[in-house]
Each structure stands twice: as structure tokens, then as C-alpha cells.
Amino acid sequence: MTTHNDSAALDKKFAQYRADFPILSQIIHGKPLVYLDNGASAQRPLAVIEAEQRYATSMHANVHRGVHTLSQRATDAYEGARERVRAFLNAKSSREIIFTRGTTEAINLVAQSYARPRLGPNDEILITWLEHHANIVPWQMVAAATGAKLVVAPINQAGELDFAAFKSLLSTRTRLVATSHVSNALGSVLPVREIVAAAHAQGVPVLLDGAQAVPHCALDMQELDCDFYVFSGHKLYGPTGIGVLYGRESLLQEMPPWQGGGDMILSVSFQGTTYNELPYKFEAGTPNMSGAVGLAAAIDYVDQIGLGDISAFEQDLLAHATQALTAVAGVRIIGTAADKASLVSFVVDGVHPHDLGTILDQDGIAIRTGHHCAMPVMEFFGLPATARASFAFYNTKAEIDQLATAVANARALFL
Amino acid sequence: MDLKELYRDVILDHNKRPRNFGVLAPPAASARGHNPLCGDQLTIYAKVEDGIIKELKFEGSGCAISVASASLMTEALTGKTLGQADALYTQIHGLLTHAELPNSTCTAELGKLAALSGVREFPARVKCASLCWHTLQAALNNPTTSVCTE
Predict the structure, then answer these.
(1) Domain-ending residue, one of A303, A318, A336
(2) Which residues on chain B place their C-beta less than 8 Å from a C-beta of chain A?
């Protein structure tokens, strides 16, 4: 818990970063934009925009192919970005860093290349009720193809994983655990260290979906000890179309490529093909160099601010938002886990979330409304949809107060 | 843009007190409609005799626009012929999607349904208003199917 003085110091520190995000200083429907949909996609600082522009104006050519200067520059920029991601995650080797289009593609890669060849009838994949569809559907596809079973660990009314139940569902049949690090629909932080320890005690590898965690907390793959960790660049203030699969090298070595094409081979003949080494084995075709460079710039930007301070400030925003929204008559917060990332999912008595989203937009306030691609979570709480305000370090308490006022006004319209 | 253009009193009233909310037992025709983006779900029930819609009911859950649209639709079409229902469907489709109304007399003919005209200024919400109309078409023409906006 931050003290009042800490809180004021953090407010002051973080007020200076807002100007780094050109998109935030615009007017929507006559009102200053209040962007509270960071969980869906965060905005990009100038540092990221300029890094991508620098790449396009002075470095771009195809990578890993040419002997000419630009190809070398592009290769250096792309591989430099990989090393930047490795350092950010404290992975042992850059061979463990695979660039993908995003979290979804990274999970599908593990599903198709790791799980599908290994699993059969009687095998189980263990997930939780909190998962985003991207961490459900790829495993359903594997289950359908192999006869394996998808097992779902329950949650409680606060939206926390029932860890005792999770442990009891781990069995000799479990071949893989795949859970989110932070729930996108509710913000609940899962006990990932305990999950990894429990799974490893049974010899079961663990994939963590870090899409919602990476913007909020520092990570250390060697300390966390998970087997796969996946995230997207655009939720970390980077570009869309770029994401990361971290994989333990020994597992990645055993896995077959999942897409064939250029760059993932050492030699090709009609008698057979020799696959390239890690990480290139999993990067068929020309990759998203510009996106990787932008992601590296986003990591530089976030690191320079410091994820420790970011987390402290966002927790302050979360506490403020929880208090401000709870004070609005008719508001019920969905997801009250003890450990939460900086987002609030809520419903308003008598106002459908979809109507609320339209009404807030007229006040320049952008929130997400709907099932958040987590329909099982909505079903658990017996709701078709919720409204979700998700905060980044460039948001302010004043913006949260505007949100609370706008929600109260929306309720008044429907009374 | 004024929010009261979208949330007119008629819309708010029909959202709060939906008319003809309920179920009709078979042999009444029925169809389910679903908007997966926002989770709106509704079922339309229609009792048709001699080409006339004798009774029209709906149930389900959704946003104010989808509930009001369904409520207004059941009010407008009860007692109408299938031909009139088709014609109104076309008119409403035009009302929701065209930048300008086909002609100025249109809104007068539409009566209370003209309240839905504010929706076309909010493109993200057009599907909310049109879901019940598509679902009714399915119930009347192909009563075993369900409709999805996506």
C-alpha cells in the first residue's frame, strides 16, 4: 500500500509521461480523450513511433539473406530486438525468444508443435476458468485432433483461481498446464509461481499467457521457471502484429517447426529439408522486423520508467478507481481478487454495458464492453457482458473521477 | 451528436417496460437471434393465421437498443399481414443503414418506430437494433434456424 506522500510523488513522476503519447491529446466528441481501454491495446509513445520510422527510413531490407548493407542493418536491428526481449525477460539465451504475430499465434504454435504431436486419448491439458479464448480454443483444437481432454480448474466468487482445486486436478494424466498470468476480464493475478511449482512437482510443463501481465510487472524467466511464456507487443505500448514466445530451449529443440517456408531451413532439396536452428526454425517467411524494432523501443521506454514504479502507480490508480466506482449507486465490481492488475470490470444496475460504452464514448471516455473474449468467465458470474476500464501509467486520478461521474450520469439517464 | 437522439424517450420507455415480452407455445413459429459481440440474445415467437400475424412475442436479454427495437417491432406488427411485415422490414433496414431516409413521408408512416432513426448515427449499434428484425424474418421464413449478426 502506498502512503499519501508516495502517492503524490508518483502522481508527479507519472504526469510527465503523458506528453510522450501524441494520440492522447485529442478531442473525441468535443471532450478530451480519456483512454481506459489499455487492456485491449495500449497506446504507443513517440519513442516507439520514431523507432519504427527510423527502421523504415534507414534500415529496411530483408533479413538473414543479403550481403548488402541494408540487409545487414535490418538483420542487426531485428536480432538486436530479440536480444532486447531476452534481456527484458532474463531468458538464458536469445535462442529461446521466438517472434510471433502476438499472444494468440504463440499459443497456437505451442499447441500445434508441442502438444499435438505428444498428446493422445487419456491425456489432459489443464487450464483455468479465467482464460481468454486464445488460451482455450487452441487446446480444444488439440483435444479434438488427439482425443486428449481439456480440464478446467475452477474459480471462486472473487474471481480467484481455486488453487487447492487446481492442485487436485493435476494428475498423472496431465501433460500440460496452460494458464493466464493475469485475467483479462477481471484483472485477477494468478499464483503463477505456485502453479509452476505444483506442475513441475508432477513433471508437467507450464505455459503462461502473459498478455495482461507484461505491461504491469517485471519478469524473470529463470526465476519464474515456466516452460513457455507468451505476450503481445501492443499491450506493452508497442506495435500490433508482433508478439513473443519464450520457450525453454530443451523443449523448443525437441519441437518440430509448425510452419514451413523460407528462413526456417538450412537446406532444401526434393529429397528432404534440413531445418534451421533455434529460433529461426519457428520463424518461417519474412518476419515483422519493423514490429520487432518497435517492441524493443517499447521495452526500452518502459524499462527507463521502471516497472516497479509503474506497478506502484497503477496500483494507486486501481485503488482510486475501485473506491470511485464503488461510490456510484448501482455499480457492482466483478472480480474482487486480493491481487489484481490495474483494471476494473463492472456492471451498472439498469444499464446494459453496451449502452454504457456508447454513452461514455460521447464523453470522450473509451472503455471496453462485452464478454472480453472470456465467455466462460461471464457465464460463471451469470452475466452476458461487463464494462471494463483498464488503466495504464499515463492515466490520471482525474480521468478516473470523470469515469465515475459519467457512469453516474449514464445511470441517471436510464432511471 | 446528442445522446438523446439515440436514447429517445420512446426507446427508454420500451427498454424499461418491454411490450409483448414472453413466450408463445408451438405451433407458434420461433427463432433465436444472437449478437456474439455484445452477448445480446433474443427469441422471437410469431403466431400466424391466414397470412396474418395474430400474436408476436419476444424474450431474451440485451442492450436498451435491442430490447426497445424488439418491443417496438412486436407492437407495430401484431395484426399485420406477412406482406406488410416484409415491407416494414425493408423500411427499417433502410432507416438504420441509409444516411438519408428514402423519403420524408417514411418517418411519419413508421410512427413510434421512427425513434430508431437515431441509431444510424452510431454505426457500432446498428446490429443491436436490427437483430430482432432479422430474427423475425427467420421465424417467419425458416422457423427452425437461429440468426447471428456476425
Answers:
(1) A303
(2) 1, 3, 6-7, 12, 15-16, 37-41, 61-65, 122, 124-125, 128
Task: Based on the fold, state whether residues A261 and A338 are members of the same structural domain.
Answer: no
Based on the residue annotation, tell me whether A373 is a catalytic residue of this protein: yes
Is A44 within the bounds of a domain? no
Q: Quote the pLDDT of residue A3.
A: 65
Average pLDDT estimate for B44-59:
94
Please report the beta strands in A360-415, taking only residues with DSSP state E, as ranges in sequence order.
365-366, 368-370, 386-390
- Residue numbers in A near B64 (CB within 8 A): 351-352, 355, 414
> Would you call the peptide bond into B36 cis, given omega within 30 degrees of 0 as the criterion?
no
Amino acid letter, B20: N
Asked if pLDDT for residue B150 goes beyond 90, the answer is: no
A363 occurs within a structural domain: yes
Once rounded to an integer, what is the mean pLDDT over residues A87-107? 98
Task: Please compute the mean of the pLDDT values over residues A84-110 and round it to a whole number.
Answer: 98
Residue in this structure with the C-alpha cell 457465464, named with its chain if needed: A379
Residues A314 and A299 in one domain: no
Tens-place pLDDT, residues A174-188: 999 999 999 999 999
Q: How far is B54 from chain A (nearest CA, A)?
A: 31
DSSP label at B81? B
CATH number at residue A369: 3.90.1150.10
Residues from chain A that touch B7, judged by Cβ atoms under 8 A, are 355, 359, 413
Using DSSP's 3-state secondary structure scheme, residue A124 falls into strand
Between A137 and A266, the more confident residue is A137
pLDDT at A53: 98
CATH number at residue B70: 3.90.1010.10
Domain that holds residue A268: 49-303
Domain hosting B127: range is 3-148
**Four-residue CA torsion sign, A212, A217, A220, A224:** negative
| CB proximity A412 to B under 8 Å | no
- Whether A384 sits inside 8 A of B1 (CB atoms) is no
